[in-house]
From TrEMBL:
Protein name: RAD54 like
Protein species of origin: Crocodylus porosus
Domain of life: Eukaryota
Gene Ontology biological-process entries: chromosome organization; determination of adult lifespan; double-strand break repair via synthesis-dependent strand annealing; reciprocal meiotic recombination; response to ionizing radiation; response to xenobiotic stimulus
UniProt keyword annotations, A-Z: ATP-binding, Helicase, Hydrolase, Nucleotide-binding
Organism taxonomic ancestry: Eukaryota, Metazoa, Chordata, Craniata, Vertebrata
């Protein structure tokens, strides 16, 4: 509990005090700090703490009044999953008025990530919570599990987190739309860029005010696709699709046209700034440069590998056969040229990779079988036939094999 005096909320590794708003009931109650569980706060890096604070402020409508959604768009490797698990756990256990902010949460992810989400929840929360992951079963079995999840009530429900794939959600949306969920998190959320598809519409019909969309690539080439993502998490902040098109998309695209007048360019830039200003209130994106302080200095070394006699003969044989083809095509790069580059890369790695081409006497490899040693077989690696293998072997055997 905090003293009953006015203080300025700060961020110091845990959620600082969030006082009850004046419009909320029980104004005479002493507000409490909302604090991240030490099990999680001790492993959060500074940028992750800032991310969790941003997510909390968004889903509790502190950043945009009347809106409860946001887009977590950090680059890969910055811990988006951990930040969202921290948000879920805090909402399920705390609020400024001494009771959980939500009773249930749902994670919707590609089918290949359902198990990963389950493992991550288990990893960070251990036995503190029992998530329900839907990873197969008959229609009736899944319906019964989902109905059981939706019918849970109270401050401490047995399985407060549901993890489900987009495909399963779409097929069983009717069951999930019968009740309400406190929070929904959509991983790989750029899948929702098309507001016309069934998955988007099914998720958008879910009875939940708090929505978090996770995507490492939220920027779309099509402005209407970008609108769909923002509209999903915070319906109405960009107007309707028609209003967005009229106010933002048309002026921005006109301003980017090569034949645009100075006035159209200026108007397009102004509308783009306005759009960015609105979206940045509910979108957070950090790059992997943040991690540089935690990593050792990156050292790159270029190692030149000498071709073995067999590789050199095969390479020369290929070039002799390829030259007339290039002359016939007038020196222009063709599909066969790009294919040749791929074949030569394989040859430089190990002759075994192009052995099948030699057997079938494909272009560039006619007569190449005669260059292989007698009794050669791809069943044994024979590293002595590859300059690359020799270069990677030399630290142990003293045979450099370098140029």
């Amino acid at each position: 509990m905090t003293a009953n005096k006015k203080t300025t909320p700060t961020w110091s590794g845990v959620f600082s005090a969030f006082f009850l708003s004046s419009h909320m009931p029980y104004r005479d109650k002493v507000p409490v700090h909302v604090v991240v569980d030490p099990v999680l706060s001790r492993v959060l890096r500074p940028h992750q703490r800032e991310g969790v604070k941003f997510l909390w402020d968004c889903v509790t409508s502190r950043r945009i009044s009347g809106s409860h959604g946001c887009i977590m768009a950090d680059e890969m490797g910055l811990g988006k999953t951990l930040q969202c698990i921290t948000l879920m756990w805090t909402l399920l256990r705390q609020s400024p008025d001494c009771k959980p902010e939500i009773d249930k949460a749902m994670v919707v992810a590609p089918s290949s990530l359902v198990k990963n989400w389950y493992n991550e929840v288990e990893k960070w929360l251990g036995g503190r919570i029992q998530p329900l992951a839907i990873d197969g079963g008959s229609k009736n079995e899944i319906d019964n599990k989902l109905a059981g999840f939706m019918n849970q009530r109270g401050l401490r429900v047995p399985s407060p987190i549901l993890i489900i794939s987009y495909e399963t959600f779409r097929l069983h949306a009717e069951v999930l739309q019968r009740g309400s969920v406190g929070l929904v998190i959509c991983d790989e959320g750029h899948r929702l860029k098309n507001s016309e598809n069934q998955t988007y519409q099914a998720l958008n019909s879910l009875n939940t005010p708090r929505r978090v969309l996770i995507s490492g690539t939220p920027i779309q080439n099509d402005l209407l696709e970008y609108f769909s993502l923002v509209h999903f998490v915070n319906s109405g902040i960009l107007g309707t699709a028609q209003e967005f098109k009229r106010h933002f998309e048309i002026p921005i695209l006109k301003g980017r046209d090569a034949a645009a007048s100075e006035g159209e360019r200026h108007k397009g830039e102004e509308r783009l700034k306005e759009l960015i200003g609105i979206v940045n209130r509910c979108l957070i994106r950090r790059t992997s440069d943040i991690l540089s302080k935690y990593l050792p200095v990156k050292i790159e070394q270029v190692v030149c590998c000498r071709l073995t006699p067999l590789q050199a003969e095969l390479y020369k044989n290929f070039l002799k056969q390829a030259k007339p083809v290039e002359e016939l095509k007038g020196g222009k790069i063709s599909v066969s040229s790009l294919s040749s580059i791929t074949s030569l890369k394989k040859l430089c790695n190990h002759p075994a990779l192009i052995y099948e081409k030699c057997m079938e006497e494909e272009d560039g490899f006619v007569g190449a079988m005669d260059l292989f040693p007698a009794g050669y077989s791809t069943k044994s690696l024979e590293p002595q036939l590859s300059g690359t293998c020799a270069a990677t072997r030399f630290p142990l055997e003293g045979d450099t094999g370098l140029c």
